Amino acid sequence: MKGLVIRGSRNIFTVRTEGGSEGCPSMPDGSRGVVLECRIKGKVLKGVEGYYNPLAPGDRVDIEVDPINPRKGLILGVEERIRILTRFNRKGQASQVLAANPDLVLCVTTPASPPFRPRFLDRALLQADSAGIPAVIVCNKWDLFEANPDTEERLQNFSTIGYSVLRVSALTGEGMDGLHALIANRLSVLLGQSGVGKSSLINALIPSMNIRVGSLNEKYDRGNHTTTMSVALEVPGSGGQTFIIDTPGLRHLVPDGIQVRDIIYSMREFAPLAGKCTYGRSCSHRIEPGCKIMEAVAAGKIHEDRYESFLRIQDELGGAHDRY
Ligand SMILES: Nc1nc2c(ncn2[C@@H]2O[C@H](COP(=O)(O)OP(=O)(O)OP(=O)(O)O)[C@@H](O)[C@H]2O)c(=O)[nH]1
Ligand SMILES: [Mg+2]
Ligand SMILES: [Zn+2]
Fold first, then answer.
1. Mutation to probe ligand 1, out of 189, 190, 200 (largest number of atoms < 8 A from CB)
2. Which ligand places an atom closest to the C-alpha of 213?
3. Whose CA is nearest to atom 1 of ligand 1?
4. What is the pLDDT of residues 167-216, one digit of tens each?
5. Residue spans of beta strands (DSSP E) within the chain
6. Which of 53, 186, 268, 278 is the most buried (most CB within 10 A)?
7. How far is the CA of 247 from the centre of ligand 2 (A)?
8. What is the CATH number of domain 84-246?
9. What is the per-residue pLDDT across 104-149, written as a single tens digit (0 to 9) for each?
10. CATH 2.40.50.140, the chain: domain bounds
């Protein structure tokens, strides 16, 4: 039997089987489906070795229902992933799967409370682009927006380089129709720092939903890491099958699976310049004469903040210029 992983930790996973019939336990959102608590059969699952977590919401698995307890099952295998959103988990020194097979990454930010953090967006967009997953920016808490030239300029720049920016409010409902339409018939994953309102957005998208949301830490003006485990939920009312994955807020997103030299291929306005510097692919884009990236920054074609993000990510991924 096939199923969709909707939640899971190290070894116990909630799997929703396809279909569902009368009398089946209903999903938290009220929709029908058979929900089973599953363990992995054997010690390792083939094809997903080496990850910090073997399975994530969005994974499609083969399961065998427990003959004695029909609410339990064993996971026999996992289907090959088409796409995978990961981050580098420093603690485990391994790649951590945030979502399997997402069609869309919703990079959530806020104009205030917590403060606008474009650097986080740069990283989230880089990760999505390098994984080949379409990404959009969702600026939640737009009800709190007070004219701020810096924020507007950065959001405008993200639009210019090719990202859609949705200005929404989970609180007032502003812009939520647009978000609803965008996610219809897709599997989307919310990615953002703690307190930006990821769970609140899901509560707004799914009327029957009541996920716990958290207050902000007054002293530091940031979230309190309320959501602790990712979960895939079905969004009703869109005809086909629409799923959205809530994730715990990330304090810092360390890019995963990207080589230092390849960063520029996954930063949209940098990519067309890749290989065009005088020193070609070996340019570090820091000191070399004839560097097309530095020229574009000087000419205002690449935003200085994006360049700064690029340098920091280069440093973090190890080596920067020493590597060249
Ligand atoms: N003013 C305003 N507040 C909002 C909005 N959306 C969420 N909030 C508030 O922001 C706080 C944090 O919301 P959560 O939904 O818990 O944020 P989260 O991103 O899920 O946080 P973590 O689970 O910690 O990652 C709560 O107090 C919400 O009520 C909004 O659109 N406007
Ligand atoms: Mg949350
Ligand atoms: Zn260069």
1. 200
2. 1
3. 141
4. 999 999 999 999 999 999 999 999 999 999 999 999 999 989 999 999 98
5. 2-8, 12-17, 34-40, 60-65, 72-78, 84-89, 94-100, 104-109, 135-139, 165-167, 187-192, 216-217, 222-223, 231-234, 243-246
6. 53
7. 7
8. 3.40.50.300
9. 999 999 999 999 999 999 999 999 999 999 999 999 999 999 999 9
10. 2-78
User: Mean pLDDT score of the chain, rounded to an integer?
Assistant: 92
Per-residue model confidence as pLDDT tens digits over 291-322: 999 999 999 999 999 999 999 999 999 754 44
Class in CATH terms, 260-323:
mainly alpha
Q: Where are the domain boundaries for CATH 1.10.40 in the chain?
A: 260-323
Question: Is 2.60.120.620 the CATH classification of the domain at 2-78?
Answer: no
In this predicted structure, the answer to whether residue 239 has a pLDDT above a threshold of 80 is no
Measured from the CA of 196, which atom of ligand 1 is nearest?
A: 19
The model's pTM is 0.94
For ligand 1, whether the C-beta of 195 sits within 6 Å is yes
